[in-house]
TrEMBL record:
Name of the molecule in the record: Uncharacterized protein
GO biological process, one term: 'de novo' pyrimidine nucleobase biosynthetic process
Chain coiled-coil ranges: none
GO molecular function: ATP binding; nucleobase-containing compound kinase activity; phosphotransferase activity, phosphate group as acceptor
NCBIfam families: UMP_CMP_kin_fam
Name of one Pfam family that matches: ADK
HAMAP family: Adenylate_kinase_Adk (MF_00235)
Substrates-to-products reaction catalysed: UMP + ATP = UDP + ADP
Organism: Euplotes crassus
Amino acid sequence: MGCGNTTSTGTKDGVTEKARVTFVLGGPGCGKGTQCSLMVERDDFVHLSAGDLLREEQATDSKDSKLIKDYIKEGKIVPVEITCNLILKAMQKKGMSKKFLIDGFPRNEDNLQGWNKVMNKHANVVQVVFFELSEDIMLERIMKRAETSGRADDNKEAAEKRFNTFKNETMKVIKHFEGKKMVHKVDATGGIEDVYENLKDGLIV
């Protein structure tokens, strides 16, 4: 499962600068979205949520919308080609010279391989931020969020499926990047500002 990305950016022989990408991973309900909002506000990142992009596409009449809806409802991982193309389209719309937070992706080894195939020529991955939190607290946060979110996957059954997916599949991706010394682990148990302070200590901006 080779990554092939480097931590450098710039132009060479007239080639356009690649986007700088930080993957943001963690179990459902760990607070990724909240912290990404702070990094956008304070650290000049552009935030792209793979889940939000999929939900937005699901709401359209595109050929992929029903497929995406079925995968999300079951707590399964959407085929990588769909997700990568949505991410690339969103990055191009924002401008490839920006530095991006890609939230909730890659979720498994297939996602990572798909990213490498589609995105290596467009972006450099500089870091993986991993928010660590217990399942009990994540479930508590999800159920609280469900009161106002309206998300189809904000329920106990879907959350448990997503926990299993994270443990069995996403952790392999995190281990891969740990081997490359690219993972910044963040304790996500405290309040929003406490977690942000933990995040800032080691964040590559």
